[in-house]
Design goal:
The structure is a single chain. With 75 residues, this protein is of the alpha+beta class. It has a single domain, classed as RNA-binding S4 domain (Structural Genomics Hypothetical 15.5 Kd Protein In mrcA-pckA Intergenic Region, Chain A, Roll). The strands form 2 sheets. A 5-stranded mixed sheet has the order 1-7-6-3-4, with helices on one face. A two-stranded antiparallel ribbon has the order 2-5. Strand 3 and strand 4 form a beta hairpin. It comes from Okibacterium fritillariae.
Length: 75
C-alpha cells in the first residue's frame, strides 16, 4: 500500500514547466485530452489547492496532486 503522505520527486531538467505537460511527464496521465479533462473537472491540486489552469507555470518545489499521488517538481 502506498503511503498517501509520500511525495515523489520528478526532475524536469529546467526551472519551470506547465501543469498539463507535467502531468504527462510525471506519468500521471498519458494523453493531452485526459489532462484537459481532469484539470477542467477540478481533480488536480497544486500545493494543496485545486487549479483548473492547464497552462499554469509550475516552479521547482511545487507539489501536484492527482488520484492520491503527490509529485514534486524538482531539478
Amino acid at each position: 500500500m502506498t503511503n498517501p503522505a509520500a511525495v515523489e520527486d520528478v526532475p524536469i531538467g529546467g526551472d519551470d514547466i506547465r501543469l498539463g505537460q507535467f502531468l504527462k511527464f510525471a506519468g500521471l496521465l498519458d494523453s493531452g485530452g485526459n489532462v484537459k479533462e481532469v484539470i477542467a473537472d477540478g481533480l488536480v491540486t497544486v500545493n494543496g489547492d485545486v487549479d483548473r489552469r492547464r497552462g499554469r507555470q509550475l516552479q521547482v518545489g511545487d507539489i501536484v496532486g492527482f488520484e492520491g499521488h503527490r509529485v514534486r517538481v524538482s531539478h
